């Protein structure tokens, strides 16, 4: 059996030094491991940088060279699409010939038209003419008013002052069906 | 007061801790940088996929452009240029319709109309606006209007004002406002 004859204070001091050295070694070992890990990550880092550089160069090349070439067919198709839309809009508009036919188809006997005007911007149609009788004019006005294509037909009451060959002027608005 | 001198062991311990802290810091920095780069690479790869898809779409669009070349040129022919030569061709074809139906069509004014009509997406459309004096019988003028509206142009008769002549009831005259859209 061995007896430690060192003083208690000395023993305590030696224990502290022992543990300090042990911790120091552990720190250095762990630090070495961490450093090795950092070095081991470097190939990954370098590979990522290379990939990133390649992709960035590709993006820059696309912006300077390919972007215009890529956009060009879309622009051409876009221009044609706009023209097609405008053409469809024009085609959907009702022709003046159809409007004239619609306005005059309901003309009863005894109504002579001497003037016709149409403004597409205001959709306003004006019919001027001579009615043989008051009833013919009233009938014409009523028929126009009942027509599905016309609205706001003016009532030519003032034109009814004369009993025969009444000159008249009727305005109406074309209903927008587009 | 006596200054306490660090022992060799204490200095070594301090060095060990410092080395550990620095190593951990370096490891964190490398790991963080890799993480950042990986995110950037992922974004760049996504962008590359989008660019590739866009290129493929452009190839398809290019094929479509080639396939529809004829139709698109035909469509373009429905619109006039505001250059003088094309306007003259358009006016000549308009005026040639009068004699075809026995009516008279005389162009009174011509001008470029900036955005007085609108397209479907409410973009003002530039066009050529012409005002013409027309005369003839009612049937002739009706035919003339119908022919004008069936011309192969994106045109609209915007205003009509016709009156029967006082001298000859068979004779009508008036104005036609024609608007043709420009390219």
List the helices and strands and how they pair.
The complex is a heterodimer of chains A (178) and B (183).
Chain A: H1 8-92, H2 96-105, E1 111-119, E2 124-133, H3 134-146, E3 150-151, E4 164-174
Antiparallel strand pairs in A: 1-2, 2-4, 3-4
Chain B: H1 8-67, H2 69-76, H3 84-101, E1 104-118, E2 124-136, H4 138-149, E3 155-164, E4 172-181
Antiparallel strand pairs in B: 1-2, 2-4, 3-4
Helix pairs in contact in B: 3-4
How is this structure best summarized?
With 178 residues, chain A is an alpha+beta fold. Chain A contains three helices and four strands. The relative contact order of chain A is 0.08.
Percent of residues in helices of chain A: 55-70%
Low confidence ranges of chain A: none
For the record, the count of structural domains of chain B works out to 2
CATH class of the largest domain in chain B: Alpha Beta
Helix and strand sequence of chain A: HHEEHEE
Q: Main sheet of chain A, how many strands, which sense, barrel?
A: 4 strands, antiparallel
Largest interface: A-B, 63 and 63 residues
Mean pLDDT of chain A: 88
Distance between the termini of chain A: 116 Å
Distance between the termini of chain B: 98 Å
Question: Which fold name corresponds to the CATH topology of the largest domain in chain B?
Answer: Alpha-Beta Plaits
């Amino acid at each position: 059996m061995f007896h430690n004859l060192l003083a208690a204070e000395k023993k305590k001091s030696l224990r502290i030094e022992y543990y300090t050295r042990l911790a120091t070694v552990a720190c250095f070992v762990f630090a070495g491991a961490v450093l090795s890990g950092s070095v081991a990550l470097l190939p990954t880092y370098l590979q990522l940088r290379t990939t990133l550089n390649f992709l960035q160069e590709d993006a820059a090349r696309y912006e300077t060279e390919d972007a215009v070439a890529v956009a060009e067919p879309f622009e051409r198709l876009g221009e044609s699409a706009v023209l097609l839309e405008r053409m469809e809009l024009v085609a959907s508009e009702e022709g003046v010939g159809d409007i004239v036919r619609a306005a005059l188809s309901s003309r009863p006997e005894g109504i002579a038209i001497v003037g016709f005007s149409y403004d597409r911007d205001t959709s306003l149609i004006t019919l001027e003419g001579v009615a043989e009788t008051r009833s013919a004019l009233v009938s014409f006005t009523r028929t126009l008013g009942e027509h599905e294509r016309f609205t706001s037909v003016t009532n030519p009451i003032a034109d009814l002052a004369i009993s025969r060959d009444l000159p008249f002027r009727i305005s109406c608005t074309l209903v927008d069906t587009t | 007061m006596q200054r306490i001198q660090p022992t060799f062991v204490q200095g070594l311990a301090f060095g060990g801790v410092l080395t550990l802290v620095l190593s951990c810091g370096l490891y964190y920095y490398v790991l963080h940088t890799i993480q950042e780069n990986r995110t950037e690479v992922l974004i760049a790869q996504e962008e590359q996929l989008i660019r590739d898809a866009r290129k493929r779409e452009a190839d398809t669009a290019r094929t479509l452009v080639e396939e529809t070349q004829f139709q698109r040129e035909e469509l373009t022919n429905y619109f006039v240029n505001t250059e003088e030569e094309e306007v003259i061709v358009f006016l000549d074809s308009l005026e040639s319709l009068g004699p075809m139906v026995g009516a008279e069509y005389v162009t009174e004014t011509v001008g470029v109309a900036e955005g007085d009509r609108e397209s479907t997406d409410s973009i003002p459309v530039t066009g050529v606006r012409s005002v013409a004096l027309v005369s003839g019988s009612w049937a002739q003028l009706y035919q003339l209007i119908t022919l004008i509206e069936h011309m192969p142009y994106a045109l609209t008769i915007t205003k009509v004002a016709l009156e029967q002549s006082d001298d000859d009831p068979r004779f009508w005259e008036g104005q036609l406002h024609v608007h043709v859209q420009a390219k």
